[in-house]
Amino acid sequence: MTQGVLPFKYEQEKTHSGMTALAGLPVYLDLAEVIGLSKSIQKHLKIRENSQGWTDSQMVLSLVLLNLAGGDCVDDLKILEADEGFCKILRQSEMHGLRRKVRRAMEQRWRKEKKRSVPSPSAAFRYLSKFHDPEQEKIREQAKVKAFIPGFNEHLKGLVKINKDMCAGLNAVNPIRTATLDMDATLVESDKRNALYCYKGFKSYQPLNTWWHEQGVILHTEFRDGNVPAGYGQLRVFKKALDCLPDNVETVKLRSDTAGYQHDLLKYCETGGNERFGRIEFAIGCDVTRAFKIAAAQVPDSEWQPIYKDQGGKRMKTGSQWAEVCFVPNELCHSKNAPVYRYLAKRQILEEQDCPPNMEAVELSLPFPTMKMVEKRYKVFGIVTNIGYEDMNGEDLIHWLHERCGKSEEVHAVMKDDLAGGKLPSSDFGVNAAWWWIMILSLNLNVMMKKLALDPSMEATRMKRVRFSIINIPGRLINRSRNLILRLSKGHPSYGLLLEARRRIAMFKGVWEPSG
Question: pTM surpassing 0.85?
Fold first, then answer.
């Protein structure tokens, strides 16, 4: 009897077959073992330390694997559990290398025989609830009309330390002495009851992320409500991000959009407020105020220089121009010891169809500031920096600042679309913060996989491609002579990729250990 229109039907296996649809996911278990991810979790999270059942490592690692496999909600743990072949590898991997005494202790955590390989959705929800602080929630409820950021409890701080260990491990194997940090917030739309409205008029949360450009990882993130401005407390967050940098980093640079135009942040960087890194070079978008427009309008037309871009090996004009601007903001006018910054303006002429007759009346509704110069109207943007003229000319500085617009913003799409950051599980702030942080661990683990284990051609690929070619491939698990063999179909193009990835990962064993 047919089940549908075409001549095929579905049946379940009558016995355990060892089949898996995630034949490439165990390679991430290899990487997690080599970088000591489980050890780091056990060191920094103590939620399940003296409890029965699932350990902290099993809980967090299951949610990391869920992100990598493509699950975007806690209920998707059921699908992960249903993958018989992968679950058997996961069980064997948990016991690998443990002494007999530790194995017995693991088995004694269960009153009855352990039947599951990953936690149930209800167990995962109970675990995530430990990251929520009811006392901070009371303050948050009272401060709904104001910007308020709940403090992290000890468990959330543990996730920060785990991510710090991962970044340190990556920089131990692939050492980079300079860290260019891109700070940017992203809106995560949510229909949760306790979510607050953002400046765009919908309910959301707005995490502030610090992206390490050279390594391509998220160094730090602070989960926030949607009504918290992106620039709120940015200096405090920047200091926390600096604390997360590995010991072998020597130089730091900062890039940000106009949300980072906070004079306490600029002064901290220019005056060497950080004892470890000293003076920090920065390029940040500045507010185009009326005073800035006046200063830019006073620049002679002959001093505006074209901005080029490389296209097909040739330098092509972009239609935009830049100029140095003599400008001192009001905040610095009243102090003799105030730092002196370098200001640049970038302008782009508006076409006639973009300039209605009543341009002055509609200007406030435009997503960019405009100004009128010599009977022409321009889009105008401002940049502030402490990088000197002799170190970087204006055009190079603008291109350097614009690099963040590509990669650091692309990673926001990866968080929300490719991983589970776009679908928050709860109305409780702390639960969502933990979910967001675990997603960050997943993102960084995947970055490490692409940088350290996969072919260099895959370093820039998105998760969709990684899942299709590496993770979500079919296989059959076979027991033979106390060994597990994961067999792929004959001639599968991913076979060689997986073998080479495992070989490269094995080379890093013992290179680093998580911090205490």
Answer: yes
